[in-house]
Design brief:
Distance between the termini: 50 Å
Mean pLDDT: 78
Helix content: over 70%
Oligomer: single chain
Radius of gyration: 23 Å
């Protein structure tokens, strides 16, 4: 697509967002001001009731848009993480152009809109900006929107459980444990997403990713346990975490051998992403989630082999992509195939 068309789309999208946010903020003030001109109490009640119905629908759309925006912002940051960490660069400091080193402005750093308004071309050195950055921001935004909508709206029941059992929407929106479980799931998705970005560029996954994931799994797990109806003590949690790590290591060894046999990846190239990714998945989701994710990986690997894809195990063939897809699908169909209870 031509750069001037991308810039036009970016401007339309930017102004649409600004107008939408402005209307959402101004609507209550306008409704309150309008009731002062109505003399009959019945007319005021009718106006307020109609406004409340509209406001509820608008609030759902606003929360959905904000969730998508949050996921897009994190995707923009994870792009930086995936680029800097393998090169042992600091994550502090402003973003800069990887080609010429020019510091990027806030407008250029805006997720999705920034790429569109630049027309897919860097303003400092006029080199093309890979469309991958734009697509990655959309993808993670959609993943955040889907998971948050399902787990908050259905209290962890998720898609299949809602279709089968017919749970009402927004059932668990204000349940604290639901937020803790969702936080753990979104953190896992971000970690696997970062590993996937690194392996797309054929970079090795640094140990710091696993260490951060370890502490995040402990923090979100303790939060979910403490907010549950029957919280367990610290010793039980530590034992359960140790069992999850052991199960993850065992599954990683099996998958490492399968990756060598089916895809032809060298052990040195794919060992870290498999061990780190599978162990983190086991720590966040437990044995049930691990088993379902491994089955999903096996199905995707067999499909890849049947399509004749056979190579070094990075780029499009990286194991991390299949792990991310399988884990995300496992989370979407959580109630049907797994168990939202925090157990081994």
């Amino acid at each position: 697509m031509q750069p001037h068309l991308l810039k036009r789309i970016g401007k339309i999208l930017k102004w649409s967002v600004l107008i939408g946010v402005g209307l959402f903020i101004a609507a209550p003030l306008v409704a309150t001001f309008a009731t002062g001109f109505l003399k009959r109490p019945e007319a005021r009640v009718e106006l307020l009731e109609g406004f409340q119905g509209w406001w509820l629908k608008a609030s759902v759309l606003f929360i959905a848009a904000w969730t998508f925006f949050l996921g897009s912002c994190l995707a923009s940051f994870l792009n930086v993480v995936a680029w800097r960490l393998p090169q042992k660069m600091t994550l502090l400091g402003k973003s800069h152009c990887p080609a010429c080193g020019t510091t990027l402005s806030l407008r250029e750093n805006m997720p999705i809109i920034g790429w569109l308004e630049c027309g897919g071309v860097s303003k400092c050195c006029f080199l093309p900006i890979p469309v991958r950055y734009f697509l990655v921001e959309i993808l993670l935004g959609l993943m955040f929107l889907i998971l948050a909508g399902l787990e908050l709206g259905l209290s962890g029941t998720s898609l299949m459980g809602w279709l089968v059992e017919g749970h009402p929407m927004l059932r668990g929106f204000l349940e604290p444990q639901t937020f803790a479980i969702l936080g753990g799931h979104l953190t896992l998705v971000c970690l696997l997403f970062t590993v996937s970005l690194m392996r797309f560029e054929c970079n090795q996954v640094p140990l710091s990713i696993f260490i951060f994931g370890l502490f995040a799994a402990i923090a979100t797990g303790l939060a979910a346990e403490s907010l549950g109806s029957t919280p367990s003590n610290a010793i039980e949690f530590i034992v359960r975490l140790g069992l999850r790590i052991t199960a993850g290591l065992a599954a990683a060894i099996i998958l490492l051998a399968a990756e060598r046999f089916f895809v032809g990846a060298r052990y040195y190239d794919c060992a870290r992403e498999i061990i780190f990714g599978v162990v983190l998945t086991s720590m966040f989701l437990g044995l049930n989630g691990l088993v379902v994710s491994v089955v999903g990986i096996a199905v995707l690997t067999i499909m890849l082999r049947l399509l004749g894809q056979y190579g070094e195990g990075c780029g499009w063939l990286a194991f991390a992509h299949r792990l991310l897809i399988a884990t995300f699908l496992q989370l979407v169909f959580w109630q049907q195939f797994g168990n939202t209870k925090i157990d081994f």
